[in-house]
Amino acid sequence: MIRIENVSLRYRTTPILHDIDLTIPKGGVTALIGPNGAGKSSLLSLIARLQPLQTGSITIDGLGVDSTPSPELAKVVALLRQDSVIASRLRVRELVGFGRFPHGRGRLTQEDCNIVNQSLRQLDLTDFADRFMETLSGGQRQRALVAMTLAQGTDYILLDEPLNNLDMYYARTLMQALRAIADENGKTVVIVLHDINQASAYADRIVAMKGGRVVGDGTPAAIFTPDVLEGIFGFRMRVETFDGKPLVLHHL
Amino acid sequence: MPDRRLIALGVAAVACMVAFLLTGLRGNIAFVLELRAIKLAALLQVGVSIAISTVIFQTVTGNRILTPSIMGLDALYLFGQMLMVFLLGGIGYVSLDPWLKFGVEILTLMALACTLLLPMLKRRLDMGLMLLAGVILGVLFRSLHSLLARLIDPNEFAVAQSASFANFNAVRSDLLIFATLVTAGAAVLAWRARHILDIVSLGSDAATSLGISWVRTVTGLLLLVSGSVAVSTALVGPVAFFGLLVVALAERIVDTRRHAVLLPAAALIAIVVLVGGQTLFQHALGNSSALSVVIEFIGGILFLLLLILGSRR
Predict the structure, then answer these.
(1) Which of A166-180, A208-222, B197-211, B292-306 has the lowest mean pLDDT?
(2) Cβ contact (<8 Å) for B208 and A50?
(3) Quick check: A223 and A216 in contact, CB under 8 A?
(4) What mean pLDDT comes out for the span B197-210?
(5) Across the interface, which of B123, B203, B257 has its CB nearest the CB of A51?
(6) What is the pLDDT of residues B280-310, one digit of tens each?
(7) Chain A neighbors of B255, CB-CB under 8 A
(8) Of A71, A126, A171, B278, most Cβ neighbours within 10 A?
(9) Domain spanning B2-311 has what CATH number?
(10) Residues 6 or more apart whose Cβ sits within 8 Å of residue A95
(11) pLDDT digits over A77-122, tens only?
């Protein structure tokens, strides 16, 4: 369980997050949605201790993110940022292997190699495993980064807009893979999504943010209504029901 | 595959060392060999320390065209030598206690390096600002250096001039032992950090997410860099110039950025370049001009060749 209490954040004088109180239960897929600049990425980076907490507290399974040693936390929570830089002259397999760093401090055992191969398979990267990262397309790189994050093998997986650069086929594949590891391996996935129909189809729970506050928290059916969506995104959109799930016609 | 290339590099490095020790051996062989062995040790020390510090510096800054010399360390060293000649006179400069001079030089160079590198510890690294500061300080020291050069007596200028090129001919063996110990320590630390360096090259966010304590790790690595550059520079003079060349060559040859391979490859290439260059310099060119000229000329051509060959593949 991720418990966020009274968390605020400001850069110099600009407030980013206001008094966030949020509990994300263990297991399942939680989607963070909201307009640009809502504070979704900042919240994720605080959970993954990429920035120091200014106020409040965040605990993951009872471990305080500011008090637990970083190597310990790396076995519990993994984060993929949306703007990851990639070192050059790096093969896909090596990058995915870096995901095992928290477990062996860089020495790969047979078990680690199996996990790396499994992550490569999950993201359909086996054929690219020995290519250099800089020779891949944007979407293939994105998949390699996701594979690295999965290879870390943590109970909590935080993904910041992982569908960036992915075509429809791989966006769907990735969402299905995340759904599967949540259902079969009991992992907790927290994912920032802009495509709210993906959120509707694959997430158990939606957390909506706007202006640094949580403005909605509930099942897709509860959040994806014309009124609530207008409150979040500032325009009215049609919502239909398809296969029992809300389908938002936001482009019309 | 990279292993075979490492072995080839190792063979080349040993060949260069043998050539350096044995070429044109005559007269009192024991005496000459001892002299050459001391010089060889200095070359090895400098080569290894520059290779390691450049690799680490590039990894930490996430930029492959930076070297520690961008921080103005060479310029500060030159200015320091000129200032000492100016204040103490040529005779006073030459009769300075070598340990005192060596120690003060190391401390000054490390102080400058740390002042410039400390901003890097902040999460949001302002690389542009740091580089600008380094380049401007470099220009400042160089200008002060040439101002002093105009003020002093021509005879004393010759003394300062001779200190402005890397010089392996007059290395004191007691200082060399100290410098070698420092470099050996740095090499061991760098080797033990090879996996951590791989992770650091992913940048602060990804590294933190993988459990690296960024500030602590990077502080340690930068201290290592500034320490080994300062010691080498204080020992033989400005040497950081060939770090860029060595690391770029190493990366082309072993075709990976993994530090378990890149660190030894860079160190071996530095040895080949430095020892081979010095051999050539002494025996083929009769000690005229400066070693840096030889290295940059041959190394530059080699690097361009590799680039062209690489783009054809």
Answers:
(1) B292-306
(2) yes
(3) yes
(4) 84
(5) B123
(6) 878 777 766 667 777 777 777 877 777 777 6
(7) 89
(8) B278
(9) 1.10.3470.10
(10) A86, A133, A144, A145, A147, A148
(11) 888 887 666 667 788 888 888 888 888 787 778 888 888 888 888 8
Kindly state the helix (H) or strand (E) to which residue A159 belongs, with its residue range: strand A156-160
Closest CA to A155 of A63, A238, A84, A237: A63
A47-51, A166-170, B164-168, B259-263 — which is least confidently predicted? B164-168
- Residue A106 with chain B: CB contacts under 8 Å: 194-196, 198-199
Q: Do A85 and B196 touch (CB under 8 A)?
A: no
Domain boundaries, chain B: 2-311
**Per-residue tokens: A23:** 């509990």
User: What's residue B268's pLDDT?
Assistant: 92
Contacts of A50 in chain B (CB under 8 A): 123, 204-205, 208-209
Structure tokens at B172: 């004191």
DSSP per position, B217-282: HHHHHHHHHHHHHHHHHHHHS--GGGHHHHHHHHHHHH----HHHHHHHHHHHHHHHHHHHHHHHH
- Residue A101 to residue B257, Cβ atoms within 8 A: no
ipTM value, please give it. Answer: 0.81
At B241 the pLDDT is 64
| A contact set with B (CB within 8 A) | 45, 48-51, 69-75, 78-81, 84-91, 94, 98-99, 101-102, 105-107, 152
Distance from CA of B218 to the nearest CA of A (A): 15
